[in-house]
Amino acid sequence: MSPSESRSLRTRLICAVLHHDPAQRIRIIRTLMSVFAWSVTLGLFYVFYVFGMAKREAVVVFVIGLIGFNSLFYAMIRFDWNLRFKDPSLTLLQLVAVNIISIPAAHFLNAEARGISSVFFILGFAFGVFKLKFKEMLTLAAALVASVSAEVMWTVRQGDLSLSFAIPYCLTLATALPLFSAFGAYFSQLRSQMRKAKVAAEAAS
């Protein structure tokens, strides 16, 4: 096979697996990067399971979510279904998907594992800093806090968690997530202002 044929085959493979449109290709790559973030969390859940801090169901739920949701997002971008949305990057939907899986999976963790894994709720919001507005991040934070609080209180009623753990845990999330949303909105606004200033400077030169 000649070098030109090899390059042509490589190009066709890239277009088949990723996309022929550079913008869509970047979105697929970002989705694959999020798979890595999901995998890190899955690895943590498996460590919890090995050390008796989580039930097997926590790992199973997370594996199903990782494969199911990321396959869906890949297909949506690969076949251009995402272009029908206001945000073609599907940032908000991806954050919602993470929370849909994380909350049921967390139900099978003990108190120690919940305290450690709670940081991933905050880190998950980092994916929204570059795309979401303050109102969207705050709404997502409120929905997450409400959902987590409902699940935690349900677990307390079942006798698997103590109220002395549940109240500080929920209050911590209720404080940290809105603050992180405000920080993310400020950072996003600052980036936008810097980008506009750069464009204005280039136009003036």
Please give a structural write-up.
The protein is mainly α and 205 residues long. It has 7 helices and no strands.
What's the SSE blueprint?
Blueprint: H1 3-17, H2 22-50, H3 56-78, H4 91-106, H5 111-124, H6 134-158, H7 163-204
Helix pairs in contact: 2-3, 3-4, 4-5, 4-6, 5-7, 6-7
Radius of gyration in whole Å, from Cα?
Answer: 21 Å
One letter per element, helices H and strands E, the order comes to HHHHHHH
Strand content: under 5%
Number of helices: 7
Helix content estimate: over 70%
CA(first)-CA(last) distance: 49 Å
E-strand count: 0
* SS content category: mainly alpha
What does the overall shape look like?
globular
Main sheet characteristics? none
> Mean of residue pLDDT?
83
pLDDT below 50 for ≥5 consecutive residues: which ranges? none
Briefly characterize the structure.
This protein is an all-alpha fold.
